[in-house]
Amino acid sequence: MIHKDSIRDEQTDLSDELAKLLIESESEVSSALNELRITFIKQPKKKKKTIPPAKLVFQRIQEFERAKRKHEEALEIYYNSLKKEKEKLQEEKDTLSNLASIGILTVCFGHEIRTHSSLALESSDEVMDLINDSISFKKELDYDAIITTTKLVKDSIHYVDSFSKIAINNIKPDKRKRKKINVPAVFDYIFKLMSVTLKNMGVNYDFSFIRITREEFNVRSYEIDWESIAINLLTNSLWALESKNKNERSILVIFERSGGTRLKLIFKDSGCGLETGSEESIFLPMSSSKRDRLGNSIGTGMGLSIIKTHIEDHMAGTVYASNDEELGGASFTMEMLQDN
């Protein structure tokens, strides 16, 4: 942290020096212009030696051009410095957004990992009991029971491994490169990762395609952005669906071509919906409508803000929220351009 602070101080000092340089170059330009202006003032008649007006004008123009070049160089240095600083700040902002998404993901999967870890331990104990019983009572091993139980262990470990991969992969440089991303494939991946949770909660979900195929719904963007978007939307819906009966829990994701190369993604659920008048404020950082039974805020207030940043800043798209009449819950609509 001390090293970072020292770097920031150096950058601050550099910005101050560039600002001084810019001011000095502007002063030189003003001085050159003033000298050029004086050139055309009528010279006193008593002065014996005078420089020809044409030569004097030429000298002043040269001075002005030198000052102008210095001014342009100062502007270019200042611009390039600000551009680099902006790129660095944007990269830091993206990293913080990704870390926040991983944090939300960790909270979401924490309970599931604990459940699967316990299941794996119990199944392992059961396999050991089957083997010990076979040895102690000298009876034939029940191979079918061992295979079935071992499969449960394997499934649980696979689930934990899948979560570990998505958490680790999210910080890999390749995930932070802009490229053609097939958005439905990302949502497929996240929903499959959460399949056990969805099944246990009784949530029915469906993907719908309107005027576009699964393979055509591609957007030039960062893969990590879409994983964050899918994770945040899904975790929001799961929370909103908790208040509904199991047979009333559903999620619908619509991939639509709204016209030409304009794409639309609609994510809606049958949950508790949005509070009246909160359609815009829910996208503000640190704003959360999630409450526990006592009315205390339990949301991070970062999920929807991260989605807004990814869609608007990284994809030049738009995102807005509303209450859905079809399913009765919240609906989030994102619009962006297709990458052919």
CATH first level of the largest domain = Alpha Beta
CATH topology of the largest domain: Heat Shock Protein 90
Mean pLDDT: 79
* The CATH architecture of the largest domain: 2-Layer Sandwich
Secondary-structure-derived class = alpha+beta
> Count the strands?
7
From the N-terminal CA to the C-terminal CA, the straight-line distance is 43 Å
Tell me the domain tally: 3
- Largest beta-sheet characterization: 5 strands, mixed
Describe the structure.
With 340 residues, the chain is of the alpha+beta class. The chain has helices spanning 2-39, 53-136, 143-169, 183-193, 195-201, 223-241, 303-315; strands at 178-182, 204-210, 218-222, 250-259, 262-269, 318-323, 330-337. Strands 2-4-5-7-6 form a 5-stranded mixed β-sheet. β4 (250-259) and β5 (262-269) form a beta hairpin. α1 (2-39) runs antiparallel to α2. It is elongated, with a radius of gyration of 32 Å. Mean pLDDT is 79; it is low at 1-12 and 290-300.
